[in-house]
Amino acid sequence: MEILIKNGYVYDPINRINGERVDIAIKDGKIVSTDLIDTRRAKVIDAKNKTVMPGGVDIHSHIAGPKVTAGRLMRPEDHYKVFMRAIPGVRRSGTGRTTPSTNLIGYKYARMGWTTVVEPATPPLETRHTHEELDDIPIIDKLCFPLFDSNWLLLDYIQDKEYEKGAALLAYLLYAVKGYAIKLVAPGAAEAWGYGKGVGLDIDDAIPGYDLTPREIIRGLCRINEMLKLPHTIHVHCNRLGFPGNYETTLKTMDAVSDLASEDRPVIHITHVQFTGYTGWSWDTLGTGAEEIARYMNTHRHVSLDLGQIVFGDATTMTADAPLEFVLHHLAPGKWSGSDVEAETAAGIVPLRYRKRSYANAMQWCIGLEVALLVQDAWRVIPTTDHPNAGRFTRYPWLIAWLMSRRAREKVLKRVNRRAASRAILPTLDREYSLYEVAIATRAAPAKLLGLKHKGHLGIGADADVVIYDIDPKSIDPSKDHAEVTNAFRRAAYTIKGGKIVVKNGEIVKHVYGKTYCLKPCVPHDLLESVVEEIKPKFREWYSVSLENYIIGEHEIRKPEVIPVETLLK
Amino acid sequence: MKLKEIRLRLKYDFKVPIDVRCVSPDVFAGKGIDDIGNLQVYEGNRARILKDLFIIEGEVGKTPSETQITIEGGSPKLRWIGYRMNGGKISVEGDVGHYAAARMHSGIIEVQGNAGSRLGAKMEGGNVEVFGNAGDHAGAYYWGEKPGMGMKGGTIVIHGNAGSEIGGGMSKGTILVEGNVGQLPGIDMTGGRIDIEGDCEGKPGARMKGGRITILGRVPMILLSFYINNIVESTTIGPKKVRVEGPFYLFQGDVMANIRCGGRFYVSARSNPHLKPYEKFLS
Ligand SMILES: [Zn+2]
User: Fold this and answer.
1) A423, β-bridge pairs
2) Is the minimum CB–CB distance between A74 and chain B shorter than 8 Å?
């Protein structure tokens, strides 16, 4: 099918198009030059007085995997409140708000105009489950990041400083579970948790059972990541996340890999930085570390961030940082679940509710936005809500409005805890994102950080993931009309995914399935063989499955897109 | 006040669940018979109208409180009868299914037969009387909710037996069961009272933080997180607070839910001779 989008104001930061009227032509699921289109046959969409952007890319959103399913089971009350009816032949039904069912995830992302989403934490052993669920999510393209921070096989190599073998093993595991990048969650904490320790494990504390510190794990995996030249950097959930005073640990984590940066590209991605940007020594004295983090970001180019912005209301925290969830369970009595994944990692889940009147929650809300507004380079700060940890992804339109409008922020600030509002620096910040910066932060930058060459832009050859929002940049002033911006982002006028119109006027009109991206790093045969021979006996001893069954075949994934990676291994 | 009566007779034997949440005096009041007949109901996953399923006769009052709805026959497939009902009366000459009287605010519901699960779930006021048995979770919260989100007021009287987890998460109101109950009555309760004239299958009051439970029949064992407080000679049961003679063991708990042990429950000493060893803790 051929589509021609005419007269729209296009925002495409990668190709430096800032609100100019450019026609976009789509043929066979790709963006093509307009003269390759047969205008008589093509479907012409008139985007007059509307905004055209590439499809959104979410760099961090927990949408699939065993912990999401456990969250759904734990929260039936989250499901009977919200449901979407099926329309035969068009869409299927679904339920859930903070832990929506698979179909709803795809539909809700598409309705907002997001077309690529990362599941950022999956235990390698249970990634088969993650892929089964990702396969079931309609419309969006998917990636998943396996957890490698407490993997015994890998820790052995890092402890012995055999990075070459470690890199070969990681490449092997990454392809075996069809993952895309290296995720670290509070490095070492899951391992220490196995000994009943690990609560508030700092970057230079010893990890029981190993002659290692979290710093060495971060540096080791960062080095391995650079050896393998993986498209994304290491994706790090910092140590001491959720503990007041943890901004120092975050700065140390960023600085730990500063010497490993070679090119002018980030080598570390700090995820949900809001949760790791606290000063103070207790929840009552919680303060903002946003200034320090922003100062570091503005003077160093090797770090990228995503926010993990709090959105008031219901949330379900789920993370591989199991000791943290244990602490949260005592802060918010009620449901809690914890689990251990053999020789790899651990996890926990606690439902939470963020309240405007709570000092700590209001402060958290301020910190996220402060980081976003204080860091000058929109290419390295991605607005996320760490769905469903800090809030659900369906609140992105509000998050965008807060970034674009000081008035929208003040409206919320009037209703939050007074002491928090007076201690935060947010009320003094008057920066407002432009639509171009929003397009950078939600589309171009995450696609670039993930190394997805065909995503996040509308240049020729890019995937035809295009969104049309009902925003007229000539007549709407987002600073004043933030409610209109929110509404436009809640319900896209059109979402086109892979050349097919999937959303029209905010409603799903077509149920399609996207691809799952995974990497195949090229490792020299001899090196790989020797590493596999070395891990075989360990695997037999430590795992409940055999190595043959651990490997996920490409045929097990609905639409795999395997990207070969040239590595530095010889 | 004389109630105006409208009678609904089942046209056929229902095979699949029917969502009749529109059968409530507040919806019917002030409407003509034709309008009532055209109200939407779901039979399984199919949208139908009320007169497809029922023969409707009689008249309704101007306000809900002047309206009585009588369902002749009844069926365990009829779900959500009297949902959010506010005033008036529903009388069922037969069985009802799940969620009868859920979220009810005021009025009366009488069921001559049996009721399904979650009878009076999350109800806030009014009176429910069931002459047969009731299913699980009578007067309870919906699935997965927090303690205190169950029944918030009103009374439920069950003349037969009731299932498990009755009064789950209730914070106010009264439940009286004249027969036996299943496991875990009063789980997560924070207030209100549950009175059971028959036996209990076990684990009464698990995680309770407040309120009171009285059991006149036999209980196999008391949870270990309850402390014995006293032996009392008599206590009261039911919405009318009828005095019954004991003696009763008075326990307090559940210490696992709250260290203050705000929940109290009375267990008949005569029906439970196996609890006698507790008496030595009282000396
Ligand atoms: Zn996360």
Assistant:
1) none
2) yes
